[in-house]
């Protein structure tokens, strides 16, 4: 098998630009063809907002700490009841159509006592408004970019055509807007999200606040009777003067983490559970891993990125969500009134900077009423295996440390003018993604849900115990994760590490999908 795998990769894998027509390769290059400076992510800093968030940094001292020091965590109010995520308004007047508007712009908000903070937000709120649609719906979102940088809207995990997916080469310049339009097929019910994806600016736009939840519902959802709660978890770094600082070299190396870990932009909210509830949880942090546990309780997980499992997974002590991963769990009241805490346990992901040690973080207080526990269906839905793989390819994640810090896939940093992989619509492939680096990396492939087949580490292969649809999978150092995947649309997509600073430092590649021959 290994020989066959290598052979197939060598003949069919990294084809490079030689296999492309000059027209295609020119259109792919950000530096060829269109000369508008605003379209170049590396030349786009010329447009400044009215209030420049960077200009004032460090210029102001106050009673809460010297300039340049972090805000103490207690300055953000805590303990309020968890808010629902506001929904994006649907302007459509007929069933089956969702029409909404998202505007990305700087806005000043109050997050810590005594200071205001300029964040970048969708429609002025943190997190962005939640989009809720049904399988079969056509979605039309008008996006306007009022940021001082190019931007895009990427529909993380959703099966949308590449030219509607907000990829780095489809940018929306400052001041401009565009329409994203796609139809969500049957079977796509799941827990997704949206965030910007302009190359060179994704990390900053995400850590300044630009992200929102996206739920697709199925008509025959077996858990539709359960009330739902949405926990959109993000972290934020604030200085003592309320400013959001730029990334440091340590952030580029380890990924950026903020001292405030929030659910729906609230610190340590209170969640009261009176009957069995379905929780959807997003890890929308740039780099923070969330090893979630409900202290003193076990977790029942019913779904992941691309929707429900076949069967509930019970008695889980903890639930690891790498950046960009999602989960659905079920939380029930107890035999008597009680309380617990939702925490993120320390998780060692190989961070390298000094003081990079992971701490236990309290995320929420959960108050459990005494009440009945809903019985879940033994089978939630059918998750069919993708067919036999017709091709095997290998991808290798690696790092180069030191002065010239680089994060690579197959020994190369990202180049928008280069195609790394070519495939065809409907072709079932195995991707053996090997992590040759010293840190965990969460691997994300755009526009499709895949199935994890197995994990191999220290010579031992573990097959996935059950089938599930995923778009992001964590890969530990010296581990090879085999996924099975088939693309549904022709066009150009990217795959990358979802530690957004790693993606920006090069750990991203391009996949060209040809129409079915
Ligand atoms: Cu990474």
Q: What does this protein look like?
A:
This protein is mostly beta strands. The protein is 7% helix and 38% strand. The strands form six sheets. The protein has a seven-stranded mixed β-sheet with strand order 11-10-9-13-18-15-16, with no helix packed on it. Strands 22-21-24-29-26-27 form a six-stranded mixed β-sheet, with helices on one face. Residues 1-63 have low confidence and may be disordered. Copper (II) ion is lined by residues 441, 497, 499, 502, 507.
Q: Count of DSSP E strands?
A: 31
Portion in helices: under 10%
Between the first and last Cα atoms, what is the distance in angstroms? 27 Å
Question: What is the percentage of strand-forming residues?
Answer: 35-45%
What would you call the shape? globular
SSE diagram, text form:
Elements: H1 2-12, H2 22-28, E1 97-109, E2 117-122, E3 128-134, E4 138-145, E5 154-156, E6 177-183, E7 190-195, H3 202-207, E8 212-217, E9 228-236, H4 249-254, E10 260-263, E11 266-267, E12 270-273, E13 277-283, E14 290-294, E15 299-304, E16 307-316, E17 319-321, E18 326-331, E19 338-345, E20 361-368, E21 391-400, E22 406-409, E23 421-424, E24 429-435, E25 441-445, E26 451-457, E27 460-463, E28 472-475, E29 479-485, E30 491-497, H5 500-504, E31 508-514
Parallel strand pairs: 1-4, 3-8, 9-13, 12-20, 21-24, 23-31
Antiparallel strand pairs: 1-2, 4-6, 5-7, 7-8, 9-10, 10-11, 13-18, 14-17, 14-19, 15-16, 15-18, 19-20, 21-22, 24-29, 25-28, 25-30, 26-27, 26-29, 30-31
The chain binds copper (II) ion (CU).
């Amino acid at each position: 098998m290994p020989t066959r795998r290598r052979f197939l990769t060598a003949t069919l894998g990294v084809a490079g630009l030689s296999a492309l027509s000059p027209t295609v390769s020119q259109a792919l290059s950000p530096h060829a063809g269109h000369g508008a400076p605003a379209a170049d992510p590396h030349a786009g800093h010329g447009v400044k907002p009215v209030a420049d968030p960077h200009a004032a940094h460090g210029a102001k001292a106050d009673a809460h700490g010297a300039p340049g020091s972090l805000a103490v965590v207690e300055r953000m109010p805590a303990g309020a009841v968890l808010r629902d995520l506001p929904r994006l308004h649907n302007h459509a007047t007929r069933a089956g159509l969702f029409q909404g508007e998202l505007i990305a712009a700087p806005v000043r908000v109050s997050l810590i006592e005594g200071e205001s903070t300029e964040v970048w937000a969708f429609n002025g709120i943190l997190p962005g408004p939640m989009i809720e649609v049904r399988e079969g719906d056509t979605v039309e979102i008008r996006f306007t970019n009022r940021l001082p940088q190019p931007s895009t809207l990427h529909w993380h995990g959703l099966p949308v055509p590449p030219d509607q997916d907000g990829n780095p080469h489809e940018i929306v310049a400052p001041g401009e807007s565009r329409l994203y339009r796609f139809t969500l097929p049957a079977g796509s019910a799941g827990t997704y999200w949206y965030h910007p994806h302009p190359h060179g600016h994704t990390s900053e736009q995400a850590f300044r606040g630009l992200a929102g939840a996206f739920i697709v519902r199925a008509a025959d959802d077996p858990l539709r009777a359960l009330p739902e709660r949405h926990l959109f978890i993000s972290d934020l770094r604030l200085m003592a003067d309320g400013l959001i600082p730029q990334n440091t070299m340590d952030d580029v190396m380890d990924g950026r983490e903020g001292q405030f870990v929030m659910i729906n932009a609230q610190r340590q909210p209170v969640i009261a559970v009176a009957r069995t509830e379905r929780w959807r949880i997003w890890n929308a942090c740039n780099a923070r891993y969330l090893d979630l546990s409900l202290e003193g309780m076990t977790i029942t997980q019913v779904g992941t990125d691309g929707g429900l499992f076949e069967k509930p997974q019970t008695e889980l002590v903890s639930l690891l969500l790498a950046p960009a991963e999602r989960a659905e769990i079920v939380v029930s009241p107890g035999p008597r009134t009680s309380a617990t805490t939702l925490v993120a346990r320390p998780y060692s992901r190989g961070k390298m900077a000094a003081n990079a040690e992971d701490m236990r973080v309290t995320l929420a207080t959960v108050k459990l009423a005494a009440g009945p526990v809903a019985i879940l269906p033994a089978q939630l839905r059918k998750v069919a295996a993708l067919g036999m793989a017709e091709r095997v390819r290998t991808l290798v994640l690696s790092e180069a440390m030191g002065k010239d810090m680089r994060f690579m896939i197959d020994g190369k940093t990202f180049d928008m003018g280069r195609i790394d992989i070519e495939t065809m619509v409907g072709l079932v492939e195995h991707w053996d993604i090997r992590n040759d680096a010293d840190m965990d990396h969460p691997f994300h492939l755009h526009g499709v849900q895949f199935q994890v087949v197995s994990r191999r580490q220290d010579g031992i292969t573990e097959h996935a115990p059950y089938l599930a649809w995923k778009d992001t999978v964590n890969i530990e150092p010296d581990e090879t994760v085999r996924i099975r995947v088939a693309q549904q649309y022709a066009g150009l997509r990217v795959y990358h590490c979802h530690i957004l600073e790693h993606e920006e430092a090069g750990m991203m590649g391009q996949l060209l999908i040809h129409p079915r021959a």
